[in-house]
Known about the structure:
This protein has 752 residues and is an alpha/beta fold. It is built from 26 helices and 29 strands. The longest helix is centred in the N-terminal third of the chain and has 19 residues, at 94-112. The protein starts with a helix and ends in a 20-residue tail after the last strand. The model is unreliable at 595-604 and 738-752 (pLDDT under 50).
Amino acid sequence: MSKLGHYAHDPAIAIVTGACPHDCPDTCSWQVAVDRATGRAVDIWGNADHPITQGKLCGKVDRYLERTYHRERLTTPLKRIGPKGSGQFAPATWEEALSAIAANLQRVIAAHSPEAVLPYSYAGTMGLLQGEGVAAPFFNKMGASRLARTICSEAGGEGYSYTIGAKEGMATEDYAHARLILIWGSNTLTSNLHLWPFIQQARKAGGRVIVIDPANTRTAQAADEWIAIRPGADGALALAMMHVIIGEGLHDADYVARATIGFDALAARVQEWTPERAATITGIPAGRIRHLAREYATIRPAAIRINYGLQRHYGGGMAVRAIACLPALVGAWRKQGGGIQLSSSGAFRRLNATTLYHPELIGDRNPRTINMNRLGDALSLEPARRARALYHPRPVDPIPTIADAGPPVQALIVYNCNPAAVCPDQGAVLDGLRRADLFTVVLEHFQTDTADYADYVLPATTQLEHWDLHRAYGHTYLSLNRPAIAPLGQSLPNSEIFRRLAAAMGYDEPCFRAQDEEILCTLVERQRHVTYEGITWERLLRDGYARLNLPDPYLPFAEGNFPTPSGKCEFYSEKMARDGYDPLPTYVPPRWQEIETGDSRLETRDFSSPVSSLSSLVCISPPAHSFLNSSFANVDRFIRRERQPVVQIHPVDAAPRRIGDGDRVRVWNERGSVLLTAAVTEDIVPGAVLAPGIWWLKQSPDGRNINQITPQDETDMGGSAMFYDAQVWVEVVAPGAAEQPEIDTTPVLAGA
């Protein structure tokens, strides 16, 4: 019997439908069983009626009640009583906390200007309301610095949009109709679980699944083939595939002529990208590249699933752009089961959120915009570093100068994020958070690494305790979350916390008086675009979700009609040219792959050369299977599953360094070091190491995690993060060895 069937006829149990809030494409619909007498949630499961969720939750969210009722859950406001970082707090009343926060914000604004206040948030919840629904109006009214939320997906989103026009693509359900599926840079079984049943349907019908990834992930192990590729080499592989497809006349000439622009220029560009050339970069034999290109061009329909891991290196935007050209080149968009998906978020792009975010409150002010990846620089008192933190994502954007830096950040308000654990260049971030003159407020469920540095910590509700509305980026269903239980202790929804802060600051606009249900109802009922036709508040209350008003089956580009400036898939992009990029797909190597030789030329490292203990490696750091970024990383069950922070290293790299399986090793570079346990395995390509994240600092052996070594540097497009582009050295830690090595970071030259 299903869980719904078990509880449906029990008068003591109420069943409430909601939605998972986490940063995952699946945006599952869930149902919660609540004991009517105690008001306590007693069970949770996936909604069997939802066409994507299909009754299942991932292993993390299936235990969501353990997170909601965790023994360390924050239930009262806290005021710091010890040094920053010590985690020493005393309880405070809401009145005391709000009064002190408002007084400090007003002090900062009066002394330094509203730009000295920085909001810092990301995807702790993906909800429209508890994400930025009341926070955005609050900071717009204040005139605080803006935050460019670039830490995850901007590079790939930009590269994809230059080519396709928007982050739209195949419907998740249509992967069931594919006969060839390339899962490219995506660990579906960890980060997109609800796509897998549709992939399995395709396999049962004779389809084949190939995973292209530097790591032999859970997904690669479950697929028909793993093609091991070096980190950051994806663009070179795509160009070589196009070389074969065009050179052998395997492209769809009719579709290309009708639905694309720039084919002749593309054909000329890829002529130089032979499989032999790509093989030296990717590590994939030239013969396998040729065969892959022929398979992709001749098996119908063919689908590609890419995710954001493959764009977390310097050339990530261009890599995604190159891959996004492939479906149009072979006419894959024509048939159900053909095409590509990076994100479905573009299908929701016509949502009118003016009534939610109230951009009019900012007036004629134009506050600076800070790139969230450069929080370490943004919190610096050095003007040159603050200037470096300003958002300027395109080559044509002027490089900010010291004169543009603006005032030091004097007040930091963090919500839906744990920057001390998740941000690049962790040492620089912690230096900023330690500043005695920085007033910091954190809205949280737990006393995270970031909360340890706060002046005030405000207890926020979990998804079981508040209203919200969710778009998805892995399907096309809008989902409503209804509160299942009352807020624990004195915790409040983010929306209510910002309403109370607004009142304490003297902001009296009507948007700061509207309540959550009213805000969401108004938002839904004011949608006028045909995409939202038929989606009503009553329907969402009844069912918990509703599909966007899209054709079924949804074949967005079967006849072309791309949402680009030309209306076609843009192999050649005038917009890219205007923005300062190469208008054609090209290969932009990751930073780790660029080695400056004596004559100032850039060479690609030769992996066939002998490896020495002095050679650097490239580090990639995807989320651990049981964590979702830093969420769930404090739940006992998941800590036990992951056991300890590890780094995977290939035997050919471990041997010259005398690293054995289970050895304690130091992974380090010029930014810092972290102690990890070595896992010697052939499940990672030679020349690379993989350190699953994101462990909280307080749970790590030396109080650090892998972001000690990740750079603040930005990708080629979108100013995104380069978590998978860190050059590192790895060595065994001898008993009693110094914590920090004296390092010579001079690169080992290619062929040395």
